[in-house]
Amino acid sequence: MSNERHAVVTGSSSGIGKAITQALLADVWRVTGFDVAPPSIVQQEFSPVSVDLCDGTAAEAAAVRVGHVDALIHAAGVLRVGPLGKLRRADGELMWRLHLESILCIANVLVPAMATAGKGRVVLIGSRIAQGKAARSQYAATKAALVALARSWAAEVVAQGVTVNVVSPAATDTAMLTDPSREGETPIVPPLGRLIRPTEIASLVLFLVSPAAAAITGQDIQICGGASLPR
User: Number of helices and strands (H, E) in the chain?
Assistant: First the structure.
């Protein structure tokens, strides 16, 4: 029998978004995945929606069609790198539209309905790079903006039983690490001695959308493998 809990996950076809989708399905959630890439999960309780999240109008329309949800997880992301003097405006626009504008359009439809229902969870996948890193200024700016977005939304809906949080991992073992746009740059392995696993991020997200996390909101939670420890 289908579970009544329904989540929307952006970027559900690969990487962190796919791991989150799989974790939710294993926990007997029904999941709708928003992604421009073909679905990589075939399961009865998973409904893929093909949508270009960089198109705000399309993202909003997809949110309207999906109806009420209990959780919204924004994991869609892309990385473009470049130092000052070599920044490309198109790269910045791409990351801003995908990381920020898409979730603004989607949440503007789905979160007010959560608040009306008196319950809901929103989790945005950020990055430790939001604190700043050379040659990542455009990416860092969009991820830092997610934190401000989450804190602002959290303040708006906390009294209506809706929580909004950011999960910010260090370098994670996904296909993004081999993206040609990195131009040969190698990721910094955390002091833990390995990259963060997508399943570890998914486990935290699963907790944040659970009833046990009802008092956690407006937070930027680091999964850093020791990278934020003082040395």
Answer: 6, 7
Q: How many CA atoms lie within 13 A of 92 on its CB side?
A: 12
Q: What tokens does 189 get?
A: 């392995």
Spatial separation of the C-alpha atoms in residues 59 and 35, rounded to whole Å: 10
Q: Is the pTM of this model over 0.85?
A: yes
Contact 71, 114 (CB under 8 A): no
pLDDT in tens, 175-211: 876 666 655 567 889 999 999 999 999 999 999 999 9
